[in-house]
Amino acid sequence: MNWFTQSRFGMFIHFGLYALPARHEWCKTREAIPEERYDLYFRHFDPDLFDARAWARSARAAGMRYAVLTAKHHEGFCLWDSALTDYKATNTPFGRDIVREFVDAFRAEGLRVGLYYSLIDWHHPDFTVDRMHPLCPERLKWKENGGESDPEIVALNAGRDMARYRAYMLGQIEELLSRYGKIDIAWFDYSYPGAFGKGRDDWGSRDIVALARRLQPEILIDNRLDLADEPGGWDFITPEQFKLEKRPLVGGRAVTWETCQTFSGAWGYSRDEDTWKSPAQLISLLAGTVACGGNLIMNVGPTGRGTFDHRASEALSALGRWTEVNGRAIYGCADAPEPFKAPAGSVMTWNPETRRLYVVLTEWPMGRLRFDFGNRVEYAQLLHDASEVKIRERPGLVNIGGGHEERVEDDAWEFILPVRKPPVECPVIEVFVKSGAAGGGSL
Ligand code: GLC
Predict the structure, then answer these.
(1) Ligand 1 pocket by C-beta < 6 Å: which residues?
(2) Could you tell me the pTM of the whole model?
(3) Cα 431–Cα 432–Cα 436 angle in degrees, nearest 5
Protein backbone atom coordinates (compact mmCIF):
# COMPACT_ATOMS: atom_id res chain seq x y z
CA MET A 1 0.00 0.00 0.00
CA ASN A 2 2.89 2.31 0.73
CA TRP A 3 3.97 2.73 -2.90
CA PHE A 4 0.36 3.56 -3.79
CA THR A 5 -0.16 6.33 -1.26
CA GLN A 6 3.32 7.72 -1.97
CA SER A 7 2.62 7.84 -5.71
CA ARG A 8 -0.62 9.81 -5.51
CA PHE A 9 -1.03 10.26 -9.26
CA GLY A 10 -1.82 7.68 -11.93
CA MET A 11 -3.16 7.30 -15.45
CA PHE A 12 -6.32 5.43 -16.35
CA ILE A 13 -6.52 4.26 -19.95
CA HIS A 14 -9.88 3.32 -21.46
CA PHE A 15 -9.19 1.66 -24.78
CA GLY A 16 -11.42 -0.70 -26.68
CA LEU A 17 -13.68 -1.03 -29.69
CA TYR A 18 -15.66 1.98 -28.45
CA ALA A 19 -12.78 4.20 -29.60
CA LEU A 20 -14.23 3.76 -33.11
CA PRO A 21 -17.81 4.97 -32.60
CA ALA A 22 -16.03 7.67 -30.53
CA ARG A 23 -19.18 8.62 -28.70
CA HIS A 24 -18.96 7.04 -25.25
CA GLU A 25 -17.90 3.61 -24.08
CA TRP A 26 -21.52 2.91 -23.15
CA CYS A 27 -22.88 3.52 -26.65
CA LYS A 28 -23.70 -0.15 -27.19
CA THR A 29 -26.29 -0.12 -24.44
CA ARG A 30 -27.28 3.55 -24.66
CA GLU A 31 -28.13 3.19 -28.35
CA ALA A 32 -29.12 -0.48 -28.11
CA ILE A 33 -26.64 -1.31 -30.87
CA PRO A 34 -27.21 -4.88 -32.10
CA GLU A 35 -24.32 -7.34 -32.04
CA GLU A 36 -24.02 -7.45 -35.88
CA ARG A 37 -23.73 -3.68 -36.03
CA TYR A 38 -21.23 -3.48 -33.15
CA ASP A 39 -19.23 -6.17 -34.89
CA LEU A 40 -18.24 -3.58 -37.50
CA TYR A 41 -15.99 -2.01 -34.88
CA PHE A 42 -14.35 -5.38 -34.25
CA ARG A 43 -13.71 -5.88 -37.93
CA HIS A 44 -12.28 -2.37 -38.30
CA PHE A 45 -10.20 -2.20 -35.12
CA ASP A 46 -6.72 -1.26 -36.30
CA PRO A 47 -4.91 1.24 -34.07
CA ASP A 48 -1.91 1.37 -36.37
CA LEU A 49 -0.22 4.27 -34.56
CA PHE A 50 -0.38 2.54 -31.17
CA ASP A 51 2.97 2.83 -29.40
CA ALA A 52 2.81 1.78 -25.76
CA ARG A 53 6.20 3.40 -25.12
CA ALA A 54 4.85 6.76 -26.25
CA TRP A 55 1.87 6.34 -23.90
CA ALA A 56 4.22 5.45 -21.05
CA ARG A 57 6.51 8.40 -21.76
CA SER A 58 3.64 10.85 -21.70
CA ALA A 59 2.27 9.37 -18.46
CA ARG A 60 5.67 9.72 -16.86
CA ALA A 61 6.18 13.23 -18.22
CA ALA A 62 2.80 14.24 -16.77
CA GLY A 63 4.10 13.17 -13.36
CA MET A 64 2.07 9.96 -13.13
CA ARG A 65 3.57 7.07 -11.22
CA TYR A 66 1.27 4.20 -12.20
CA ALA A 67 -1.25 3.31 -14.87
CA VAL A 68 -4.31 1.10 -15.19
CA LEU A 69 -5.46 -0.20 -18.59
CA THR A 70 -8.91 -1.57 -19.43
CA ALA A 71 -8.02 -5.14 -20.38
CA LYS A 72 -11.74 -5.66 -20.94
CA HIS A 73 -14.50 -3.07 -20.66
CA HIS A 74 -18.27 -3.60 -20.52
CA GLU A 75 -18.46 -4.31 -24.27
CA GLY A 76 -16.59 -7.57 -23.56
CA PHE A 77 -13.75 -7.01 -26.04
CA CYS A 78 -10.38 -8.25 -24.74
CA LEU A 79 -7.14 -6.40 -25.38
CA TRP A 80 -5.04 -9.50 -24.71
CA ASP A 81 -4.70 -12.85 -26.41
CA SER A 82 -7.15 -14.72 -24.19
CA ALA A 83 -7.46 -18.44 -24.84
CA LEU A 84 -11.07 -18.28 -23.67
CA THR A 85 -12.62 -16.08 -26.36
CA ASP A 86 -12.29 -15.09 -30.00
CA TYR A 87 -13.40 -11.58 -29.14
CA LYS A 88 -9.93 -10.16 -28.71
CA ALA A 89 -7.46 -7.73 -30.22
CA THR A 90 -5.34 -10.50 -31.71
CA ASN A 91 -8.29 -11.48 -33.93
CA THR A 92 -8.84 -7.98 -35.32
CA PRO A 93 -6.91 -6.48 -38.26
CA PHE A 94 -4.53 -5.09 -35.62
CA GLY A 95 -3.57 -8.54 -34.38
CA ARG A 96 -1.40 -7.57 -31.39
CA ASP A 97 -1.58 -8.23 -27.63
CA ILE A 98 -2.09 -4.73 -26.26
CA VAL A 99 -1.88 -5.78 -22.61
CA ARG A 100 1.57 -7.28 -23.20
CA GLU A 101 2.86 -4.13 -24.89
CA PHE A 102 1.29 -1.96 -22.18
CA VAL A 103 2.84 -3.76 -19.21
CA ASP A 104 6.28 -4.00 -20.84
CA ALA A 105 6.38 -0.34 -21.85
CA PHE A 106 5.04 1.12 -18.61
CA ARG A 107 7.32 -0.99 -16.47
CA ALA A 108 10.28 0.01 -18.60
CA GLU A 109 9.36 3.64 -17.92
CA GLY A 110 9.42 2.92 -14.18
CA LEU A 111 5.66 3.00 -13.65
CA ARG A 112 3.59 0.52 -11.69
CA VAL A 113 0.95 -1.30 -13.74
CA GLY A 114 -2.63 -2.22 -13.08
CA LEU A 115 -5.37 -3.90 -15.09
CA TYR A 116 -9.03 -2.98 -15.18
CA TYR A 117 -11.37 -5.89 -15.77
CA SER A 118 -15.07 -5.29 -16.37
CA LEU A 119 -17.37 -7.63 -14.48
CA ILE A 120 -20.08 -6.54 -16.88
CA ASP A 121 -19.93 -8.15 -20.31
CA TRP A 122 -22.35 -7.25 -23.09
CA HIS A 123 -20.90 -9.72 -25.55
CA HIS A 124 -20.67 -12.97 -23.62
CA PRO A 125 -23.61 -15.27 -24.47
CA ASP A 126 -24.00 -16.44 -20.85
CA PHE A 127 -24.16 -12.97 -19.33
CA THR A 128 -27.82 -12.51 -18.44
CA VAL A 129 -29.76 -9.54 -19.74
CA ASP A 130 -30.26 -7.02 -16.92
CA ARG A 131 -31.31 -3.41 -16.67
CA MET A 132 -28.16 -2.15 -18.37
CA HIS A 133 -27.75 -4.70 -21.10
CA PRO A 134 -27.95 -3.55 -24.73
CA LEU A 135 -30.69 -6.16 -25.33
CA CYS A 136 -32.85 -4.87 -22.50
CA PRO A 137 -35.94 -3.30 -24.08
CA GLU A 138 -36.18 0.47 -23.57
CA ARG A 139 -39.30 0.21 -21.41
CA LEU A 140 -37.32 -1.78 -18.81
CA LYS A 141 -33.91 -0.17 -19.15
CA TRP A 142 -32.37 1.27 -15.97
CA LYS A 143 -35.36 0.04 -13.90
CA GLU A 144 -34.03 -1.34 -10.64
CA ASN A 145 -36.65 -4.01 -10.07
CA GLY A 146 -39.34 -5.96 -11.81
CA GLY A 147 -37.65 -6.35 -15.17
CA GLU A 148 -36.17 -9.71 -14.20
CA SER A 149 -39.61 -11.37 -14.27
CA ASP A 150 -40.84 -9.65 -17.44
CA PRO A 151 -41.65 -12.36 -20.03
CA GLU A 152 -39.45 -10.71 -22.65
CA ILE A 153 -36.44 -10.76 -20.31
CA VAL A 154 -37.18 -14.31 -19.18
CA ALA A 155 -37.21 -15.37 -22.82
CA LEU A 156 -33.98 -13.49 -23.57
CA ASN A 157 -32.31 -15.16 -20.61
CA ALA A 158 -33.39 -18.71 -21.38
CA GLY A 159 -30.18 -20.64 -21.92
CA ARG A 160 -27.90 -17.92 -20.46
CA ASP A 161 -25.95 -19.30 -17.54
CA MET A 162 -24.11 -17.03 -15.13
CA ALA A 163 -22.26 -20.00 -13.63
CA ARG A 164 -20.53 -20.47 -16.97
CA TYR A 165 -19.85 -16.75 -17.16
CA ARG A 166 -18.32 -16.83 -13.66
CA ALA A 167 -16.00 -19.63 -14.74
CA TYR A 168 -15.06 -17.58 -17.82
CA MET A 169 -14.20 -14.58 -15.63
CA LEU A 170 -12.05 -16.64 -13.28
CA GLY A 171 -10.23 -18.11 -16.25
CA GLN A 172 -9.60 -14.70 -17.76
CA ILE A 173 -8.49 -13.15 -14.49
CA GLU A 174 -6.12 -16.05 -14.05
CA GLU A 175 -4.65 -15.33 -17.50
CA LEU A 176 -4.23 -11.64 -16.73
CA LEU A 177 -2.67 -12.19 -13.34
CA SER A 178 -0.35 -15.03 -14.29
CA ARG A 179 0.95 -14.19 -17.75
CA TYR A 180 2.20 -10.64 -17.40
CA GLY A 181 4.48 -10.62 -14.39
CA LYS A 182 3.79 -8.47 -11.38
CA ILE A 183 0.47 -6.65 -11.56
CA ASP A 184 0.15 -3.96 -8.93
CA ILE A 185 -3.57 -3.15 -9.14
CA ALA A 186 -6.69 -5.09 -10.13
CA TRP A 187 -9.52 -2.71 -10.91
CA PHE A 188 -12.79 -4.67 -11.15
CA ASP A 189 -15.82 -2.73 -12.40
CA TYR A 190 -18.64 -2.75 -11.20
CA SER A 191 -21.64 -3.91 -9.13
CA TYR A 192 -25.26 -2.81 -9.19
CA PRO A 193 -26.91 -5.31 -6.86
CA GLY A 194 -30.61 -6.07 -6.85
CA ALA A 195 -32.99 -8.36 -8.64
CA PHE A 196 -32.55 -6.74 -12.05
CA GLY A 197 -28.89 -5.96 -11.50
CA LYS A 198 -25.77 -7.84 -10.44
CA GLY A 199 -23.74 -8.12 -7.28
CA ARG A 200 -21.37 -10.34 -5.37
CA ASP A 201 -23.21 -13.62 -5.91
CA ASP A 202 -23.61 -13.03 -9.62
CA TRP A 203 -19.89 -12.31 -10.00
CA GLY A 204 -18.62 -14.82 -7.45
CA SER A 205 -16.77 -11.86 -5.94
CA ARG A 206 -15.18 -13.79 -3.08
CA ASP A 207 -13.65 -16.29 -5.49
CA ILE A 208 -12.35 -13.46 -7.65
CA VAL A 209 -10.64 -11.75 -4.71
CA ALA A 210 -9.22 -15.05 -3.44
CA LEU A 211 -7.82 -15.87 -6.88
CA ALA A 212 -6.32 -12.42 -7.35
CA ARG A 213 -4.64 -12.51 -3.93
CA ARG A 214 -3.33 -16.02 -4.50
CA LEU A 215 -1.79 -15.18 -7.87
CA GLN A 216 -0.55 -11.72 -6.88
CA PRO A 217 -0.15 -11.54 -3.11
CA GLU A 218 0.78 -7.82 -3.15
CA ILE A 219 -2.00 -6.71 -5.47
CA LEU A 220 -4.30 -3.83 -4.53
CA ILE A 221 -7.99 -4.36 -5.30
CA ASP A 222 -10.65 -1.68 -5.73
CA ASN A 223 -14.01 -1.73 -3.97
CA ARG A 224 -16.43 -2.42 -6.80
CA LEU A 225 -16.99 -6.13 -6.26
CA ASP A 226 -19.88 -5.50 -3.84
CA LEU A 227 -17.80 -6.68 -0.87
CA ALA A 228 -17.97 -3.50 1.18
CA ASP A 229 -18.52 -5.34 4.45
CA GLU A 230 -16.17 -8.22 3.76
CA PRO A 231 -12.76 -8.19 5.48
CA GLY A 232 -10.13 -8.18 2.75
CA GLY A 233 -12.81 -7.64 0.10
CA TRP A 234 -11.16 -4.41 -1.08
CA ASP A 235 -8.11 -2.26 -0.49
CA PHE A 236 -9.17 1.19 -1.62
CA ILE A 237 -12.37 3.05 -2.37
CA THR A 238 -13.04 4.72 -5.69
CA PRO A 239 -15.12 7.91 -5.69
CA GLU A 240 -15.85 8.52 -9.38
CA GLN A 241 -15.89 11.98 -10.97
CA PHE A 242 -16.33 13.42 -7.52
CA LYS A 243 -14.06 15.86 -5.73
CA LEU A 244 -14.02 15.23 -2.01
CA GLU A 245 -13.67 18.07 0.47
CA LYS A 246 -12.15 16.02 3.24
CA ARG A 247 -10.70 12.59 3.91
CA PRO A 248 -13.49 10.01 3.50
CA LEU A 249 -14.43 7.69 6.35
CA VAL A 250 -15.86 4.20 5.98
CA GLY A 251 -17.53 2.98 9.15
CA GLY A 252 -15.83 5.85 10.99
CA ARG A 253 -12.39 4.76 9.78
CA ALA A 254 -10.04 6.62 7.41
CA VAL A 255 -9.49 4.52 4.29
CA THR A 256 -7.16 4.51 1.32
CA TRP A 257 -8.88 6.12 -1.62
CA GLU A 258 -8.41 6.98 -5.26
CA THR A 259 -10.69 9.23 -7.24
CA CYS A 260 -11.00 8.44 -10.95
CA GLN A 261 -11.64 11.40 -13.22
CA THR A 262 -11.86 12.23 -16.90
CA PHE A 263 -10.37 15.18 -18.76
CA SER A 264 -13.79 15.53 -20.38
CA GLY A 265 -17.10 13.76 -19.86
CA ALA A 266 -16.48 10.24 -21.19
CA TRP A 267 -13.92 7.49 -20.49
CA GLY A 268 -13.54 6.16 -24.00
CA TYR A 269 -12.37 8.48 -26.79
CA SER A 270 -15.22 10.85 -27.44
CA ARG A 271 -14.70 12.99 -30.49
CA ASP A 272 -17.50 15.53 -30.02
CA GLU A 273 -17.58 15.72 -26.25
CA ASP A 274 -16.51 19.19 -25.24
CA THR A 275 -16.40 19.60 -21.47
CA TRP A 276 -12.63 19.56 -21.16
CA LYS A 277 -11.25 20.70 -17.81
CA SER A 278 -8.76 23.57 -17.85
CA PRO A 279 -5.15 23.10 -16.66
CA ALA A 280 -5.93 25.08 -13.49
CA GLN A 281 -8.92 22.82 -12.78
CA LEU A 282 -6.80 19.71 -13.29
CA ILE A 283 -4.05 20.96 -10.99
CA SER A 284 -6.51 21.90 -8.29
CA LEU A 285 -8.15 18.49 -8.67
CA LEU A 286 -4.77 16.80 -8.18
CA ALA A 287 -3.63 18.97 -5.29
CA GLY A 288 -7.11 19.01 -3.74
CA THR A 289 -7.19 15.21 -3.81
CA VAL A 290 -3.82 14.90 -2.08
CA ALA A 291 -4.94 17.57 0.40
CA CYS A 292 -7.65 15.09 1.43
CA GLY A 293 -5.19 12.21 1.65
CA GLY A 294 -6.18 10.55 -1.64
CA ASN A 295 -4.87 9.50 -5.06
CA LEU A 296 -6.00 10.80 -8.43
CA ILE A 297 -6.19 8.51 -11.45
CA MET A 298 -6.75 10.68 -14.51
CA ASN A 299 -8.20 9.03 -17.57
CA VAL A 300 -7.13 9.12 -21.21
CA GLY A 301 -9.27 7.56 -23.95
CA PRO A 302 -6.93 6.89 -26.88
CA THR A 303 -8.29 7.28 -30.41
CA GLY A 304 -8.98 4.45 -32.85
CA ARG A 305 -5.50 5.08 -34.30
CA GLY A 306 -4.08 4.26 -30.87
CA THR A 307 -2.93 7.80 -30.04
CA PHE A 308 -3.75 10.37 -27.38
CA ASP A 309 -5.67 13.12 -29.15
CA HIS A 310 -4.34 16.68 -29.00
CA ARG A 311 -6.68 17.77 -26.20
CA ALA A 312 -5.55 14.94 -23.96
CA SER A 313 -1.90 15.53 -24.88
CA GLU A 314 -2.19 19.21 -24.03
CA ALA A 315 -3.84 18.46 -20.70
CA LEU A 316 -1.09 15.95 -19.88
CA SER A 317 1.61 18.46 -20.83
CA ALA A 318 0.05 21.10 -18.59
CA LEU A 319 0.05 18.64 -15.70
CA GLY A 320 3.65 17.75 -16.52
CA ARG A 321 4.77 21.37 -16.52
CA TRP A 322 3.24 21.73 -13.08
CA THR A 323 4.41 18.49 -11.47
CA GLU A 324 7.94 18.95 -12.84
CA VAL A 325 8.50 21.88 -10.48
CA ASN A 326 5.75 21.29 -7.94
CA GLY A 327 5.86 17.51 -7.52
CA ARG A 328 7.14 17.90 -3.97
CA ALA A 329 3.64 19.08 -3.07
CA ILE A 330 2.20 15.75 -4.31
CA TYR A 331 4.43 12.69 -3.89
CA GLY A 332 4.53 11.33 -0.38
CA CYS A 333 2.09 14.01 0.75
CA ALA A 334 -1.29 13.87 2.46
CA ASP A 335 -3.69 16.07 4.34
CA ALA A 336 -2.13 18.51 6.78
CA PRO A 337 -2.61 17.69 10.47
CA GLU A 338 -4.09 19.97 13.09
CA PRO A 339 -3.57 22.84 13.65
CA PHE A 340 -2.69 23.72 10.05
CA LYS A 341 -5.55 25.13 8.03
CA ALA A 342 -5.33 26.05 4.38
CA PRO A 343 -5.38 29.81 3.79
CA ALA A 344 -8.29 31.17 1.71
CA GLY A 345 -8.06 30.38 -2.01
CA SER A 346 -5.64 27.49 -1.52
CA VAL A 347 -5.48 23.80 -0.85
CA MET A 348 -2.77 22.52 1.44
CA THR A 349 -0.77 19.31 1.50
CA TRP A 350 1.80 18.05 3.99
CA ASN A 351 4.80 15.81 3.73
CA PRO A 352 5.16 14.07 7.10
CA GLU A 353 8.71 12.88 6.32
CA THR A 354 10.19 16.24 5.46
CA ARG A 355 7.74 18.16 7.64
CA ARG A 356 6.90 20.63 4.92
CA LEU A 357 3.57 22.17 4.11
CA TYR A 358 2.52 23.03 0.59
CA VAL A 359 0.08 25.86 0.03
CA VAL A 360 -1.19 25.41 -3.52
CA LEU A 361 -2.62 28.72 -4.64
CA THR A 362 -5.63 27.93 -6.75
CA GLU A 363 -6.48 31.64 -6.62
CA TRP A 364 -3.69 34.20 -6.79
CA PRO A 365 -4.03 36.65 -3.89
CA MET A 366 -3.62 40.41 -3.99
CA GLY A 367 -0.06 40.71 -2.72
CA ARG A 368 -0.62 39.11 0.66
CA LEU A 369 -2.23 36.01 2.01
CA ARG A 370 -3.48 35.68 5.54
CA PHE A 371 -2.81 32.50 7.50
CA ASP A 372 -2.84 31.52 11.13
CA PHE A 373 0.13 29.23 11.83
CA GLY A 374 2.94 31.75 11.47
CA ASN A 375 4.52 30.96 14.83
CA ARG A 376 5.32 27.48 13.50
CA VAL A 377 7.05 28.59 10.33
CA GLU A 378 10.80 28.48 9.97
CA TYR A 379 11.04 29.54 6.33
CA ALA A 380 8.85 29.78 3.23
CA GLN A 381 9.53 29.93 -0.48
CA LEU A 382 7.79 29.68 -3.81
CA LEU A 383 8.37 26.10 -4.82
CA HIS A 384 8.86 26.55 -8.56
CA ASP A 385 11.85 28.88 -8.23
CA ALA A 386 12.88 28.64 -4.55
CA SER A 387 12.42 32.39 -4.09
CA GLU A 388 11.83 33.47 -0.52
CA VAL A 389 8.30 34.31 0.60
CA LYS A 390 8.51 36.62 3.57
CA ILE A 391 5.98 36.38 6.33
CA ARG A 392 4.96 39.03 8.81
CA GLU A 393 2.59 39.37 11.66
CA ARG A 394 -0.65 40.98 10.79
CA PRO A 395 -2.73 42.48 13.55
CA GLY A 396 -6.45 42.16 12.94
CA LEU A 397 -6.87 45.92 12.78
CA VAL A 398 -7.81 48.15 9.86
CA ASN A 399 -7.51 51.89 9.35
CA ILE A 400 -11.03 53.25 9.30
CA GLY A 401 -9.94 56.83 8.55
CA GLY A 402 -7.85 59.47 10.24
CA GLY A 403 -5.45 56.83 11.50
CA HIS A 404 -8.17 55.42 13.69
CA GLU A 405 -7.94 51.66 13.84
CA GLU A 406 -10.63 49.16 14.49
CA ARG A 407 -10.30 45.44 15.21
CA VAL A 408 -11.97 43.46 12.43
CA GLU A 409 -10.40 40.03 12.85
CA ASP A 410 -7.97 38.05 14.99
CA ASP A 411 -4.28 38.75 14.82
CA ALA A 412 -2.61 36.47 12.29
CA TRP A 413 0.27 36.33 9.84
CA GLU A 414 0.56 36.96 6.16
CA PHE A 415 2.67 35.69 3.31
CA ILE A 416 4.02 38.59 1.27
CA LEU A 417 3.67 37.72 -2.40
CA PRO A 418 4.22 39.60 -5.62
CA VAL A 419 1.03 41.29 -6.79
CA ARG A 420 1.56 39.81 -10.20
CA LYS A 421 1.13 36.05 -10.43
CA PRO A 422 4.33 34.25 -11.50
CA PRO A 423 4.08 32.60 -14.93
CA VAL A 424 2.99 29.16 -13.62
CA GLU A 425 -0.47 27.75 -13.01
CA CYS A 426 -1.36 27.42 -9.35
CA PRO A 427 1.97 28.45 -7.77
CA VAL A 428 2.91 26.68 -4.56
CA ILE A 429 4.36 28.09 -1.32
CA GLU A 430 6.61 25.55 0.35
CA VAL A 431 6.62 26.06 4.11
CA PHE A 432 9.33 24.60 6.35
CA VAL A 433 7.80 23.92 9.74
CA LYS A 434 9.96 24.59 12.83
CA SER A 435 11.06 21.35 14.36
CA GLY A 436 9.17 20.56 17.51
CA ALA A 437 7.07 23.65 17.07
CA ALA A 438 3.94 22.10 15.73
CA GLY A 439 1.10 20.91 17.88
CA GLY A 440 -0.74 17.60 17.56
CA GLY A 441 0.89 14.42 18.89
CA SER A 442 2.59 13.03 15.79
CA LEU A 443 4.17 16.35 14.88
C1 GLC B 1 -18.04 3.53 -14.60
C2 GLC B 1 -18.37 3.30 -16.04
C3 GLC B 1 -17.23 3.15 -16.87
C4 GLC B 1 -15.88 3.55 -16.41
C5 GLC B 1 -15.72 3.50 -14.95
C6 GLC B 1 -14.44 4.10 -14.45
O7 GLC B 1 -18.44 2.67 -13.71
O8 GLC B 1 -19.25 2.25 -16.22
O9 GLC B 1 -17.48 3.37 -18.18
O10 GLC B 1 -15.03 2.61 -16.89
O11 GLC B 1 -16.77 3.98 -14.31
O12 GLC B 1 -14.47 4.35 -13.11
Answers:
(1) 14, 25, 189-190, 240, 260, 267
(2) 0.95
(3) 130
